[in-house]
Amino acid sequence: MNKIWNTLEAVFGGLCGLALGFIMPIWPFIATAIALVIADTITGVLAAKKRGEDFQAPTFYRTSQKIAVYMVSILACEG
Predict the structure, then answer these.
(1) CA pair distance 74, 78, nearest whole angstrom
(2) Does the model's pTM come out above 0.85?
């Protein structure tokens, strides 16, 4: 049982190292994209309030979609 655990630990450690090695060089781009999407959402909500429009939960669902699309795009450009 100990041998299986050591093997799983080594595989998991290797996969985490591979993922971090792939993501760490581009983390500033990922952080910037997330910050810009959040700023876009905040300004959109403030503009809707100023116009007297009602915003709903799909607005925030689209925000998560934007973040996902930007992350995949950044990762695709890295690969």
Answers:
(1) 6
(2) no
